[in-house]
Design a protein that fits this description.
By secondary structure, this protein is α/β, with parallel strands linked by helices. The chain folds into four domains: 2-134, Response regulator (Rossmann fold, 3-Layer(aba) Sandwich), CATH 3.40.50.2300; 154-319, 3-Layer(aba) Sandwich (Rossmann fold), CATH 3.40.50.300; 322-395, Helicase, Ruva Protein, domain 3 (Orthogonal Bundle), CATH 1.10.8; 413-452, Arc Repressor Mutant, subunit A. The protein is built from 19 helices and 16 strands. The strands form five sheets. The protein has a five-stranded parallel sheet, sandwiched between helices. The chain has a five-stranded parallel sheet with strand order 7-10-13-6-14. Strands 8-9 form a two-stranded antiparallel sheet.
Length: 457
């Protein structure tokens, strides 16, 4: 938190009226930021190419060939993460609203109120500081712990990655909880990769749908003659994973008789192959996963309580995709890159309207379902930018994506607007930047409406 409070932003003020630019710069320097000025769009673009700025405050009309929109475009191209604030006369407000769709942070109308500008700049600076902290944390985790395939910068995912960092070096069993398709297998692999067992095998087995006899043979192996057709001995998954990690997916579906045999392995590291008498000793870390409510199954006598406690050495719960919608744009980009590489397609991205439609979905199949949908869109689209026309029929928005849904009848316009803003904030988990883009209004306007309607958290 102190890193955010002590953050000193690098700010560029662009205005072809030098005295005005200097006055604005002086006002922002009182917030303890580092401020430089540019007297033209051309000068601003050259400065952007040479140095990264956290916030740019630019007049929309600059007199030269490059106006404020040109400065915005240069920032988007050469300085990712820079927040751009446009200053404009009332007659150009519509242009600035369009600029918000192109990535501008906000706009301020003339005559300029310095206190208003300071407030907007502080929000922009805070946003860049938060993004830097998240980016640095994510980079450290990726570099040190190899978590590149676990996509997401939401607070929920960052907490999971931080817990992964703490859990991985130990030898305690880990229980992963979450709905099907949330990526429990990726998390299990990441735990193994960051453990002291990383140089030994990671062995996975899905326990769902396997009979007791087949599951026993898969886990513990058999000796020659153990049953008809057993012409030789065979190592089971536990023996094969000796010294490494075994991942038991959907462990909640394991038959009760097999649960007792698994408990023996967890308690003393001993297993007995099918048809054998002598036990074998193995040293295996167990990571298990389930989408079921194990405590409830224990109460229903469908899962052994002692086994539950053994598996539950440490627990990580992965939230469903509908509870971390802010990660959906990152996941879409990742899956587009994956699909392009796999299918030799040339899809360059996704339109805002199509992305918005995907963000509105509840995704009962979670990340796995999103990946399949995006892959299908890429394969069928082939090239260019994915749009609403590329969405599968079931994902087409009920109303045109550029238009808000119809307000309920019988309520005032104020009530309808309040509900629309409230529901949008819920949809994006309180992310005001995403909410403003979805609503088609500036962040400054959204902040004012939130305060006006009493929607502060």
């Amino acid at each position: 938190m102190s890193d955010l409070e002590d953050f000193r932003a690098e700010i560029l003020v662009v205005d072809d009226e030098t005295p005005h630019a200097e006055a604005v710069a002086e006002g922002l320097e009182r917030l303890h930021h580092h401020v430089r000025t540019a007297a033209s769009g051309e000068q601003a673009v050259n400065m952007i190419r040479q140095q990264h700025y956290d916030v740019i405050v630019t007049d929309l009309k600059l007199g030269g060939e490059i106006d404020g929109l040109g400065v915005l475009a240069a920032a988007m191209q050469h300085s990712p993460g820079t927040e751009v604030i446009l200053v404009t006369a009332h007659s150009s407000v519509a242009t600035c609203r369009q600029a918000l769709q192109q990535g501008a942070f906000d706009y301020i109308e003339k005559p300029l109120d310095l206190d208003d500008l300071r407030a907007v700049v502080q929000r922009a600076a805070q946003k860049t500081a938060q993004q830097r902290v998240i980016r640095d944390l994510r980079q450290r985790l990726d570099e040190k712990y190899g978590t590149q395939n676990i996509i997401g910068n939401s607070p929920a995912m960052l907490r999971i990655l931080e817990n992964l960092r703490r859990i991985a070096p130990s030898s305690l069993p880990v229980l992963l909880l979450g709905e099907s398709g949330t990526g429990k297998d990726l998390l299990a692999q990441a735990i193994h990769n960051n453990s002291r067992r990383r140089n030994n095998r990671f062995v996975a087995l899905n326990c769902a749908g396997l009979s007791e006899s087949l599951l026993e043979d898969e886990l513990f192996g058999h000796v020659r003659g153990a049953y008809t057709g057993a012409t030789g001995e065979r190592k089971g998954r536990f023996e094969y994973a000796d010294g490494g990690t075994i991942f038991l997916d959907e462990v909640g579906d394991m038959p009760l008789a097999m649960q007792a045999k698994l408990l023996r392995v967890l308690e003393n590291g001993e297993l007995v192959r099918v048809g054998a008498n002598e036990p074998l000793h193995v040293d295996v870390r167990v990571i298990s996963a389930t989408h079921t409510d194990l405590p409830r199954r224990v109460k229903e006598n469908r899962f052994r309580e002692d086994l539950f406690f053994r598996l539950n050495g440490m627990t990580l719960e992965i939230p469903p995709l509908r509870e971390r919608r802010e990660d959906i744009p990152l996941l879409i980009e990742h899956f587009i890159r994956q699909a392009n590489a796999q299918h030799a397609t040339k899809v360059s991205g996704i339109a805002a309207q199509a992305q918005r439609a995907l963000m509105l979905c509840d995704w009962p199949g979670n990340v796995r379902q999103l990946r399949n949908v995006v892959e299908n869109m890429v394969v069928l689209g082939g090239q260019g930018r994915l749009g609403v026309q590329d969405l599968p029929p079931q994902f087409h928005p009920a109303t045109p994506p550029d238009q808000p849904a119809a307000a309920p009848a019988g309520v005032s316009l104020t009530q309808a607007q309040r509900e629309l803003i409230r529901n949008t904030l819920i949809l994006v988990n309180g992310n005001r930047q995403q909410a403003s883009k979805m609503l088609g209004i500036g962040e400054r306007t959204l902040y004012r409406k939130i305060k006006e309607y009493g929607l502060e958290e």
